[in-house]
């Protein structure tokens, strides 16, 4: 169950990153509220997952999900550039996440 909490925490990290971008520096109310609520949920689920997943593993997986997810959201919803080097960087992050998961048992 901890791994499920961790993945959901990562998804909420993507939500708050996107909402923060949409808040325009916390000048727009609704995206600002979504950012704060999603952050709180994300941190809480991360903390719950860390009850049984080692700190290093949980944190790397959480930030990796957020990083790759924000990368994809940026491309799909914000028309951010897509090129070979950016894709390679995302692939390397995902590879690191997989290795971290396998190394944690």
UniProtKB/TrEMBL annotation:
<protein>
    <recommendedName>
        <fullName>Guanidinium exporter</fullName>
    </recommendedName>
</protein>
<feature type="transmembrane region" description="Helical">
    <location>
        <begin position="84"/>
        <end position="102"/>
    </location>
</feature>
<dbReference type="GO" id="GO:1990961">
    <property type="term" value="P:xenobiotic detoxification by transmembrane export across the plasma membrane"/>
</dbReference>
<keyword id="KW-0812">Transmembrane</keyword>
<dbReference type="GO" id="GO:0022857">
    <property type="term" value="F:transmembrane transporter activity"/>
</dbReference>
<comment type="similarity">
    <text>Belongs to the drug/metabolite transporter (DMT) superfamily. Small multidrug resistance (SMR) (TC 2.A.7.1) family. Gdx/SugE subfamily.</text>
</comment>
<dbReference type="Pfam" id="PF00893">
    <property type="entry name" value="Multi_Drug_Res"/>
</dbReference>
<feature type="transmembrane region" description="Helical">
    <location>
        <begin position="57"/>
        <end position="78"/>
    </location>
</feature>
<dbReference type="InterPro" id="IPR037185">
    <property type="entry name" value="EmrE-like"/>
</dbReference>
<keyword id="KW-1003">Cell membrane</keyword>
<dbReference type="InterPro" id="IPR000390">
    <property type="entry name" value="Small_drug/metabolite_transptr"/>
</dbReference>
<dbReference type="InterPro" id="IPR045324">
    <property type="entry name" value="Small_multidrug_res"/>
</dbReference>
<dbReference type="GO" id="GO:0005886">
    <property type="term" value="C:plasma membrane"/>
</dbReference>
<keyword id="KW-0813">Transport</keyword>
<keyword id="KW-0472">Membrane</keyword>
<keyword id="KW-1133">Transmembrane helix</keyword>
<feature type="transmembrane region" description="Helical">
    <location>
        <begin position="33"/>
        <end position="50"/>
    </location>
</feature>
């Amino acid at each position: 169950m901890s791994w499920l909490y961790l993945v959901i925490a990562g998804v909420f990290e993507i939500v708050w990153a996107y909402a923060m971008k949409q808040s325009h520096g916390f000048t727009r109310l609704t995206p600002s509220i979504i950012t704060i609520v999603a952050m709180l949920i994300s941190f809480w689920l991360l903390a719950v997952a860390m009850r049984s997943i080692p700190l290093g593993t949980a944190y790397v997986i959480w930030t990796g999900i957020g990083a790759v997810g924000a990368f994809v959201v940026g491309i799909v919803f914000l028309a951010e550039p897509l090129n070979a080097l950016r894709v390679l960087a995302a692939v390397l992050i995902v590879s690191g996440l997989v290795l971290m998961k396998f190394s944690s048992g």
